[in-house]
Amino acid sequence: MYGELRRHRGLGARGRLDADNTDLLWLPRSAVVACLSALDSYVHAVLYDRIPTVMRQNSVPGPLCDMLASVMPVKNGTSFHNALPLLRSQDSVAELGSRLKEERLSFLSYQAPEKIIVAYELIGYPAIFDDVADIWPGPRTSSDDIRRTLANYVKRRNQIAHEGDREAGGEPRPMQPKYANDCREFTGSLVSKLNRVVYDI
How far is CA 167 from CA 78, 108, 126, 151, in A? Predict the structure, then answer.
């Protein structure tokens, strides 16, 4: 869309934009926000898919048990009474998973590296970025590199979404369409590797 609008305005395919056309740079900015939102949606989808299966295994990860306990606390008669509908349900695991989704997971954001680590610990992957790094060839693909790159994109996403992407003095931060393309390629590659780790595809 950025390229098409440049051509529509007679600006050519490349080159610096003048003040009247810098509004076009909100397209790559919005692409950065969309990339991180898509990553967040993907991680949520994986959790919603895998948690019911993990809950039916003999060994359930401790972090998941802790989170489940927070949505089904049984400490006294009142909390036990509140838990009875779940205990009586035909599929209590599915019911507990639904409660977890509605009361906890749907309110959490999974974009920053530390948040993604927490998410994958729930389904039994305590070192997810190490697992991803093991199958990501090329330079700057160590676990630390991947987390650092993601953290930088998340920081810029937050600057765009919460600060209007402006410096402290009010001037817009520089933005190049290549930055948005790099963000898209990185998040796409990250999701591909996360998918391979969990689903072996």
Answer: 52, 28, 37, 19
